[in-house]
Amino acid sequence: MVHRKQRIAVFGAGGHGKVVVDAVERSDGFVVACVADDRPLPGAAILGHAVVGGREAMLEGRGGFDGVIVAIGDNRARLEVAGWLKAQGFALQSVVHPAAVVAPSATLGAGVLVMPGAVVNAEARIGDNAIINTGAIVEHDCKVGAGVHVAPGAVLCGGACVGAGTLVGAGAVVLPGVRVGESLLVKAGTVVARNLEKDD
Ligand SMILES: CC(C)(COP(=O)(O)OP(=O)(O)OC[C@H]1O[C@@H](n2cnc3c(N)ncnc32)[C@H](O)[C@@H]1OP(=O)(O)O)[C@@H](O)C(=O)NCCC(=O)NCCS
Q1: What is the pLDDT of residues 57-91, one digit of tens each?
Q2: Is the pTM above the cut of 0.70?
Q3: What is the 172 CA–ligand 1 centroid distance (Å)?
Q4: Max CA distance (Å), the chain
């Protein structure tokens, strides 16, 4: 039996959009259906895919794709667009680059992106629309909230928790079992050794 490839719309035509298009193109079961952006530059194209326009284009193109992934690096903006897409009835698609390792016992929400060299280990839970970026490590039993971005090379040690909307900056380390609150910024290259909340 021949399986048809899933046609994926990529929403976001910036630098992050580029790596998402690359990941979709390399994934066995997917093909890029279109690239959309609310503020496309004239003549914009991402890796050879013309940018079709923004939300209106998504509505017009409905039916031409099976799912959408939001390719916007900024957590708040990504969640806003994902919420709109979901409210319009679009299916949010997760994409795992073929050079990433995701344990079978880990769970990924909708619209999650896992980039090359990243590891999501046993029984980790990744919330909707989170980004596990290039070379990041999410160890066993971690809980990563919706819309979190674990930036390139960051490490969440076993059992760490990161609240919704937080950016864990490039190369940062969250030590085992430590909890980081919601909508925070963990500075690039820092070590979080104790629980971190908004007013800390
Ligand atoms: C912490 C952070 C938010 C600071 O941003 P900012 O307020 O714009 O700070 P600036 O870039 O103006 O830098 C201010 C000073 O802090 C230093 N600095 C900035 N970030 C730093 C970091 N993570 N660690 C150590 N020093 C840092 C700068 O060198 C500069 O030092 P100086 O005053 O001696 O020249 C930012 O650097 C950061 O870590 N962002 C996360 C980025 C990331 O990982 N994104 C993911 C992309 S995929």
Answers
A1: 999 988 899 999 999 999 999 999 999 999 999 99
A2: yes
A3: 12
A4: 56
